[in-house]
Amino acid sequence: MMPSPALRRAALASELLPVLTGLAVLAIIAFAGPGPERPRVAAAAEAAAPAPAPALALTNATLIDGTGRAPRPRMTVLVRGSRIADVFPAGRQPLPADAQVVDLTGRYLIPGLIDAHVHLGTRPRPAGMMQQILRAALLSGVTAVRDMGGSAAVVTPLARAALPDTAMSPRIYYAAVLSGPGRWFTGEFGAHAAGGLPLGESPLVRRVGTGTAVRQVVAEARAAGATGIKIYDAVDAALVRALVAEARRQGLRSWSHLAVQPTRPGELVAAGVEVVSHGDQFRAELTTTLPAGLGDSARRALRQDEYRRMSPDDPALAALLAQMKAAGTMLDPTLFVMLPLEPPADTTRAAMDQLLSAFRFAAAMTRRAARAGVPIVAGTDAIGGSSANLHAELQLLVDSAGLTPLQALTAATRNAALALGAQDSLGVVAPGMLADLVILRADPSRDIRNTQTVEAVVRAGHLHRRSAPLRPGPLAQPAPQPGARKENR
């Protein structure tokens, strides 16, 4: 499944209008009735069989296929065009004569990584900067992202530019934010999100409440290319149920914050939300409602004392995790964004403990969710700069939330593809899937830091080699050097 069929409709309705016109002209020529040249054109088309797509054979790799199964040594992945044609033990069958053969002896092959929580268009950036960030993300091994809210004027062109197989960008799937009153509709942040439209009326950043025309709101999000809706805040349970049901009817995914006051997390799960975000927001199942309209940082500041008092072992949270497991609800914990990147130099130990209270609670809840059988999805809430932040998120899932390296890899591959609704094309290495792959120099199943040892990335069958080693981004520990003792931190 390529990013949102609706995105293609939106593109044809706007910037690609000249292309549409050209296609219409060709259609008129083709179907205008008998003419002196038409039989010869048709005969030529029938005689000219399409040339086979080029083949790429990645041989002798240790394959980690994204399903959670153990690594398989000496495997060949045969790519034909943009898709995986076959996967088999090296040497078991001959390679096509036209194949470009890449010997990956001593290398590790994994599915393209997916950052399932980014924001590409929430603030102004210098021209071209986001394109450079996306290029760096791709060369860091991130071949798809899920944008969780931003200006349509920014996100839609980026997603359109990422459609070609040769694009130097991850594939971009994106959400339409549906929220009650709050930060999306006030000040400079709200004005940027609106993209020149009246506040709250952008199809990708929509204010909802009593009297909302639910069918129209969802239809406009779909027409704007959204893959799913994201329920953000101040939406009551009845409206949540209506939005989720309508999104399902129109073929969109349903995503949400865990804390959507006055709606509790358990009500979101009961409504059928497929993915919930932010592990610290499990506290909403236990605590009272805060004033409406607060941003994430303000919420966390007000909740710091509560995080220290709450127990992740609370029976109400155990019941919520069991409910999520039964419903198949996925958790996108976004641990990375909860750690202070640059705390003030004079921060005391007590103050740092307070700053870390939300992170510690979120990490503990992620650990309990994984043990309860809730599928974990890897997302950063902050894509990164010259290197992708997803590598740090994977390390936090292992080091702080107790996932094994293979479980963390699954969170960024198969599970993330499920979150996007793209499981038929992305997330695992298998015949028929899109050929989005990452070649690593070291084994990430033994040490999750080795996801940083990116040697090359394959996107839609196109091989892109790195010219220099990946530099660790913020909070990401460097991968062990050759010859060093490997261990999970």
Describe the structure using short key phrases:
single chain; 489 residues; alpha/beta; TIM Barrel; 9-stranded mixed beta sheet; 8-stranded mixed beta sheet; 16 helices; globular; disordered C terminus
Report a brief summary of the structure.
This protein has 489 residues and is an alpha/beta fold. The chain has helices at 5-13, 17-31, 38-47, 129-139, 152-161, 187-194, 214-223, 237-249, 265-271, 296-309, 315-327, 349-355, 357-371, 390-399, 405-411, 414-420; strands at residues 55-63, 72-80, 83-89, 100-103, 108-111, 113-118, 142-147, 171-179, 201-202, 205-207, 228-231, 253-257, 275-277, 330-332, 437-440, 454-459, 462-465. The strands form two sheets. Strands 6, 7, 8, 9, 10, 11, 12, 13 and 14 form a nine-stranded mixed sheet that branches. Strands 1, 2, 3, 4, 5, 15, 16 and 17 form an eight-stranded mixed sheet that branches.
The shape is globular
Structural class: alpha/beta
Share of helix among residues? 25-40%
Query: By CATH's scheme, which homologous superfamily of the largest domain applies?
Result: Metal-dependent hydrolases
User: What is the CA–CA distance across the termini?
Assistant: 36 Å
Query: Architecture of the largest domain in CATH?
Result: Alpha-Beta Barrel
The tally of helices reads 16
CATH C-level category of the largest domain: Alpha Beta
Approximately what portion of the residues adopt beta-strand conformation?
15-25%
Number of strands: 17
What's the mean pLDDT score? 88
Query: Taking Cα atoms only, what radius of gyration do you get, to the nearest Å?
Result: 24 Å
Number of folding domains? 2
Low-confidence stretches: 4-47, 484-489
Biggest sheet overview: 9 strands, mixed
